[in-house]
Amino acid sequence: MITKWKIFLLMIMTGKNGKSDNTKDSVILLIDSDFDLSKIKTIKKDFHYNQIISFDYNSHKNLNLENIEHQISDEFITQEDTNKIQDHLYTFSKWYYEKSIRKFFMIDDLNIGQLLQEQFIDYMIKFLKKFFEFKKIYEKFPNSLFISSGILYEISAIFSSNVQKIDTDVEVNYDFVHDKVRIDLNLGKNRINFSISSSKYKKIKHFSEKFTQSLFEPKITSNSHNVLLVELSTEIYQKLLEESRNHNINLIQFGIRRPAIWNMDTFKIIKNSKCGIITPDSLIDSELKIKIQEQKNLITKQILELYRQDEILSQYFSYEGYSFWCAIKPIIQKLFEKRTEHIARDIQTIKALFQKITIDTAVIPSEIGITEQIVINESKKHGIKLALLQHGMYYDTKEAKETNLSKGLYPVKSDKFLIWGKVSESDSKNNGFIEPTKLKIIGHPGYDSWKSTSIHKDTSCVLLALTGPEHMFIQGHQVSNIIKFENYLEEICKIVTAMKKKLIIKIHPSFHVFDFTEMIKKISSDIEVISGGSIMELINSCDVMIATNYTTAILESYLLQKPVICLPIIDYNLGIPTLFDFNADMIISIEKVQMTLEKLMCDKEFKNKTIQRQNKFVEYYLSNHGNSSKKLLEYIKTM
After folding, report:
1. 43/51 Cα distance (integer angstroms)
2. Could you read off the pLDDT of 162-173 as tens digits, one per residue?
3. Are 588 and 567 in contact (CB under 8 A)?
């Protein structure tokens, strides 16, 4: 609490009027989005601060709305510092491998810490950004008094003894990745989206799956190859499921995160395929519930023992002699508290699955998801072959190796990596250091039925595939980059509106997307903003697509014969992917957007040449287009 005595001492330190004459006597207020902005007026009445520094976009935005002068923490670090923070993120995120504490994570050959790597990274990138930024601030103002609350107080206290904590009534927000699930619905022509808690989502999923389990019980036979499809989208892999009818193979859908059936379309797809469904809840009986509770107790016991290793963890979570373990320990405790029961349930459910049915091959979309990691572990124990599917375009550069590993894109534990084409093969060998024998070019079954369709429309249309600031990178949290992104988006909207063209904005389906809808609607209420559903129909309806980042939607637009302009707004220091190198002419600056749009819409020769060049890239990047489902099923039988 800020007492009158402390204020008196502060005034002596800073001068009679409380104002600093130089940096060594300054009083700095540190603010992030958890700070209660109404406190500023109270603090100002008590004493004069020399400076306010905001540490994230929301606090910066709120300060601007109140016309309060401040600096942004981004300004204190260099590009070199930014790259260093990202590197340290990947190092710290592998804490579960540390020899002295690894035993506390191990449950039946499964590393519990690794199960939560994705969620750990999501929190740590925000923490490390503040940690490194404050370190630079402290080095510039070593004798200043720092006033803060929440995590900023915990960080500032690591470096300085001259800190003041502000009492706050704001409850600490412990939201982690997957705490909420976004629901996208089409109601006629209207599209709505909202979020619900993961617990509510699972209750709804459990209720709906009671019917699907009984209708599509898998038919397991000894003379057929039984393939477990883990967390794969029924909609995306429609062609693969339907093609299974032509093969002596049994496909079995299993998903803890996503249901196999969620609407009439997916019901029809499953009905018209030779695919069975096993739901998680169908495996749980009274005996398994006891095992789940025992598993939960064991995990809890081991994690509690982990928390007692403060000396080891203080050394591990440190930088240049400054340990931040005490600052992040409560967050990690909350993460495990939230996830332990779910992990115990998932482990025992998947064990029951492998005991119930005979599986010859398991197919997974990544190696990072909790479901996928447990399936990997059980497959290894039962001698079952594992196939990792490439499920999107990714940066095929040496700079992106750690990023790709952190996303579970490479086959570290899988037996085979079923890839889209030669580019992915080259990247896996040269950048991912994957053994060539693990690689098999298949193509992408999800694109087998994709084809260009002419849609009658009264006006020309531009589709903006909006991939916002990436939350897995420090650059995606820097205020300057978010402001730049916002300004570019506003400029694109104004350009297309001024050209009298219809603009549709397709937002990337992620919880970490900034909501720019209000700003967009201020420019024009006619701009359509869509967050859910397939992008194929939208691409077919447009004349040109604009992409704000490297995204799979670019390849999808190429497939549908639509020209693409790419405007990479934020540099994530991931190098130049093959696609950008191949089609360098269409990687443009904001100044060239209008000119390029007009040329693509009015100059048929230019448009055709652009599409021809795009077609060459598709041939180079994507193999077996239209036939990859058949190729995949034939290959799996030989594994």
Report:
1. 13
2. 999 987 766 666
3. yes
